[in-house]
Design goal:
This protein is of the alpha/beta class and 586 residues long. It is 63% helix and 9% strand. The structure holds adenosine-5'-triphosphate (ATP) and magnesium ion.
């Protein structure tokens, strides 16, 4: 109940419709319950009096009641369908919005299949719950209470016989619910794991085929699929047992009441019409009682689904943007920015990944670095030393755990993220492209950039190949851009980074996949861009390092040396060995 109550904000907008639907359903079941009373009147009146017109009239009344009941059931469905689809769509959009805003550290931790299954299968379960159990648990409850009132009024002794199974049924249902909800949760988690396997193997199909791993992958899938089958069967068996008992106990009670009733009619203590009415009321209550098992099952599925939905919605978000600082009275831009502060400055920056083992030292432990305005700084270090991590701190993809990062004297945490990300543009190590055209992929780099900027960016990144694609820059590049070569993807990602003419440019090993000639061309074109921006370029190769004015060496989580390439080559053993390989180590 507590889980489902959290759906209220999403259900609120359609509460009127739900109320109308519930009323229609209650009214329908009222009509259903009146039918036995009409039967009683027919049997004890016209039938006993041998009055054919009276029987026809009675039949007509029963038929009309039946039509009204069916019509109202139809109204309920028609009225609900649209608004509930709306609730589902709204929840799904809210989920997607949240996924887009959750920090990178969240996405590092969560398997994509778990997110995918929550956004699809789980939300469908919620909609099914809103369509059936939500109204029917209420309506059936009302019907059962009214029905029993009718039964007890007609013949209270027989009514009590029918009431006998109620207590065991309640106990059964609560036992069932507890077990079923656990099984439902397990099952839905397993759907998520299964989705992850499918997704990963589709994205990694080249590796799987290349290493002949399809059999192993199939086995992994089959194992996970067997787990899911097992938990689904457990659910089915729980539901089957419950349904069996929920059906059998009332049937037994109805049988007993029938025997007792026939005896009473024979003794003359009861009219035949009353017995007919009593039994048809009892039979009319069969569906509301029997459906409780199924409704509880769907409710528990939905409760587990809701929990899974809110686990993501409740995940801690990135801290909100700081309120903008009031403009300083003296009219200077930031009040504190001195010449020394201009450019990009990192002071005492520390970072540890949230899921890193507690004993491990932080990846960055006190990084001090100053990149002057307009300067290009290369960042060099052994693989895994934290270069990519350092670059991720500047656009705040991760939050530094200590220290300050300032752009022109202004702390990045004081800037709204949107503004920060306008100022700082990044070409990541993995050149990720989206299912869109080549041009659209580049233009993602800057809001409002047009054809002219696109051309310039493609020229800088030496991505002229785009013009010879079948539809030029309008050519679709396929999921993740896999229809392009690695170097082509890298150049598009580079074009994306430079298209907006950003003030600060961060390039994570941007030329690693290019042949030496293309690299040289990109470099000479890039020089122009770099001349007007403040840039940090992660580099592994001397040729890339040469783009930079100065080089910083990252080692042991700190910047251990800063200088020109030649200064470091001669003055720093670690740098010299990084740049020239072990055989020429001094
Ligand atoms: N999301 C993450 N969660 C936990 N640890 C991580 C994560 N990403 C990277 N690391 C760890 O942080 C360290 C630094 O990684 P980083 O990617 O910054 O290295 P790098 O210097 O860019 O290496 P390369 O030159 O190979 O690109 C590594 O030891 C890595 O295992
Ligand atoms: Mg890296």
């Amino acid at each position: 109940m507590r889980s489902l109550a959290r759906l209220w904000p999403y259900v609120r907008p359609v509460r009127g419709t739900l109320l109308v639907a519930a009323l229609a359903a209650v009214l329908a079941s009222c009509f259903g319950l009146v039918i036995p009373l009409a039967l009683k009147w027919i049997v004890d009146g016209p039938v006993a009096d041998r009055d054919p017109p009276g029987v026809w009239l009675g039949g007509l009344v029963v038929a009309l009641l039946g039509v009204a009941e069916a019509g109202l059931a139809g109204v309920r469905r028609v009225v609900l369908a649209g608004p509930l689809a709306g609730v589902e769509a709204e929840m799904r959009s809210a989920f997607y919005r949240r996924l887009q805003r959750l920090p990178v550290s969240f996405h590092d931790r969560w398997p994509s299949g778990q997110l995918l299954s929550r956004a699809t299968a789980d939300l469908m379960l919620v909609r099914v719950f809103l369509a059936f159990p939500l109204t029917f648990l209420l309506v059936n409850g009302v019907t059962i209470v009214m029905g029993f009132a009718v039964l007890l009024l007609q013949e209270w002794t027989l009514g009590l016989v029918l009431l006998a199974p109620v207590v065991p049924l309640i106990v059964l249902c609560s036992l069932f619910e507890e077990r079923y909800s656990r099984a439902a949760r397990t099952s839905q988690d397993r759907v998520g794991d299964l989705t992850t396997i499918v997704e990963e193997s589709v994205l990694g199909i080249r590796v799987i085929k290349g290493f002949g791993r399809h059999r192993a992958q199939e086995q992994a899938f089959a194992r996970q699929s067997a787990l899911l089958r097992e938990s689904e069967l457990r659910k089915a068996s729980l539901l089957g047992r419950l349904w069996g008992l929920v059906t059998a106990l009332p049937e037994l009670a109805i049988g007993a009441a029938l025997v007792l009733g026939v005896v009473q009619v024979a003794d003359g203590g009861l009219t035949a019409g009353t017995l007919v009415a009593f039994l048809s009321t009892a039979l009319a209550l069969r569906w509301p009682v029997e459906s409780i098992g199924f409704l509880l099952a769907v409710t528990n599925d939905a409760a587990a689904a809701t929990d899974r939905f809110f686990e993501v919605m409740d995940a801690p978000q990135a801290p909100p943007d700081a309120a903008p600082e009031p403009a300083p009275a003296d009219g200077s831009r930031t009040g504190r920015a001195t010449v020394r502060d201009r450019g990009l400055r990192l002071a005492g920056v520390e970072f540890r990944y949230p899921d890193a083992p507690a004993a491990a030292p932080p990846v960055l432990r006190g990084v001090d670095l100053h990149i002057r305005p307009g300067e290009t700084m290369a960042l060099v270090g052994t693989t895994g030393c934290g270069k990519t991590t350092l670059t991720a701190l500047i656009p705040r993809l991760h939050e530094a755990t200590a220290g300050r990062i300032t752009l022109d004297g202004q702390e990045i945490t004081a800037l709204p993220r949107a503004r920060l990300r306008e100022l700082v543009s990044v070409a990541f190590e993995e050149p990720t492209l989206f299912s869109a055209s080549a041009g659209e992929n580049v233009l993602m780099g800057a809001a409002g950039a047009g054809e002219a900027e696109l051309r310039r960016a493609l020229a800088v990144a030496q991505a002229g190949f785009v013009h010879s694609l079948p539809d030029g820059h309008r050519t679709q590049v396929g999921e993740l851009g896999l229809s392009l070569s690695g170097g082509q993807r890298q150049r598009l990602a580079l074009a994306r980074a430079v298209v907006g003419g950003p003030r600060y440019l961060i390039l994570d090993d941007p030329l690693s996949a290019l042949d030496v000639h293309t690299e040289a061309l990109v470099e000479s074109a890039l020089r122009e861009v770099l001349a007007t921006t403040t840039a940090l370029v992660v580099a592994h190769r001397p040729s890339t390092v040469l783009l930079a004015d100065r080089v910083a060496l990252l080692s042991g989580g700190r910047i251990t040396a800063v200088g020109t390439h030649h200064e470091l080559l001669h003055g720093n053993g670690e740098y010299a060995s990084l740049m020239s390989g072990p055989e020429r180590r001094p």
